[in-house]
Amino acid sequence: MSTTPLTITPETARHVLWMFGHPGGQQPGRFTQHLAAAIECADCKHAAILAEAFPDLAGAILLAKHHEDGIQQLKDMVAPRCTRCTDTDGPFTSDGLCEPCARPVPLGGVM
Ligand SMILES: [Zn+2]
Q1: Which of 20, 49, 74, 100 is most deeply buried (CB count within 10 A of its CB)?
Q2: Distance (Å, rounded) from C-alpha 14 to C-alpha 55?
Q3: Cα(99) to centroid of ligand 1, in Å?
């Protein structure tokens, strides 16, 4: 069973953050809520079966439950990032750039 965070979509990360009561979370639909509850309380055998069918949700839940910084990793997946420097400090332009990247210093330097 893979718990690679790379397979977790931002939407799934938001759902799992909501499930664990963290800011930045978003309430999923009823099916996902029940599915997530089933994964969360499943024993290893059943968790593995559910993870085969729903790898991103299972991966996100395992990350939240068993990794020291799992919640922070999920928050990082949800946070918007600058497409150039990957900073999370907004606001961002429509191109996904942070303010410093949107207004680069001219080649001549600051006057
Ligand atoms: Zn930037």
Answers
A1: 74
A2: 15
A3: 7
3 close to 57: Cβ distance less than 8 angstroms = no
Q: Enumerate the domain spans of the chain.
A: 5-79
Q: Looking at 20-110, list the stretches that DSSP marks H as alpha helix, in order from N- to C-terminal side.
A: 30-41, 44-53, 55-66, 70-78, 99-102
| Digit-coded pLDDT (tens) for 16-68 | 999 999 988 999 999 999 999 999 999 999 999 999 999 999 999 999 999 99
CA of 100 from ligand 1 middle (Å) equals 6
Q: How far is the CA of 51 from the centre of ligand 1 (A)?
A: 35
Distance from Cα 91 to the centre of ligand 1, integer Å: 10
